[in-house]
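Reopening: structure tokens for the zinc ion complex, inputs below.
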Amino acid sequence: MSSHARWSTCRLLMAGLAAVVGLGGGASRAEVAAGPLIGIKVYDPVPDTAALFRDWKRLGIDTAFISTALAESGTFVPAARQAGIRTFVITPVFFNPEYLAAHPDAWAITGRGAKAKDDWVEFVCPSHEAYRQERARYVLSLLERRRPDGLSIDFIRHFVFWEMVRPDGRIDPLDTTCFCPRCLARFENDAGVVMPVAAKASPRAAAEWLLGQQSEKWTRWRAGLITSWVEEVVREARRVAPGVKINLHLVPWGDSDYENGSIRVVGQDVRALAPLADFVSPMCYAHMLHRDPAWVGRVTRELAAHVAVPVLPSIEVKESYRKEPLTKEFFAAALEAALAPPSAGVVFWSWPPLSEDAAKQEIVARRAR
Ligand SMILES: [Zn+2]
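Re-run output (same inputs, fresh job):
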């Protein structure tokens, strides 16, 4: 069966399931039939959800990736379920400007001794135990209270403003994180490494010593901070909400990008993370990153070769961080690349620009038909 036909069949099955799910009450899940998952990210309150879901049905969109604010509204998740739309709540982890404003001791620190801040990107130290626990408790309580179908774990990584890194860019190790005293002590303890006193005199001294003398242990340990948070939260999530689906947002870098930047900089060890999840979703924002649309397919294929779970590339609808428009031709080509095997679907980022663009909606609707 072609993917077009599968998608249409999926729509028909969903229409039937929506009625069943609607009768099932608040705790049931919006079961979506097999076929590509067609998702969309939406962050802000939507005044008329009935109209929204009608639009999404027309476009073949079956899954909403919603902000915590939208989930906390209390009305969106049940309304989506009633309409046969599956919901994942996007839960940011180590990006948290509000927390940092109230807890200045919690900043991640770069090898230059600077706070992990670049424009709007502000990161908490990933070994700050009180924060790790508080964030885990919040995500789990949200899951228990709002009962979405899934969690879409975002900013589950170390600090970097990756949206700004060009294909030929380079990331200085001194700009990576976190070299705060809390991390150094935890690293010494966990990795069984004793750092010379001089290497602990400053973040720069620590970074130079760690990256020079213990780079493999350091890199593995700091990726472990990311993996272990996911491990603990996912285990608890599956206990409090059996059947919950877990998606992980990934920085769209392969092994050959930025000297293995996905681990060395970002700290996302996909081979360790993927087995904990039901989906992985690389943010394939090709236009933003000065890549061609076909690059979306290359990232998806490379990732799929390393993981056993479905890969859901996320693609942008409109230009960001640059003036050149993201044309409908670029969008159509990126969508084709995103849906090509072995992809398990696509997640559009985001609804407002798609809602305002009839031509791009037509491209999505045509793909759905
Ligand atoms: Zn730290």
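Confidence is low (pLDDT under 50) at residues 1-28. Residues 215-240 form the longest helix (26 residues). Marking as resolved unless the reporter disagrees.
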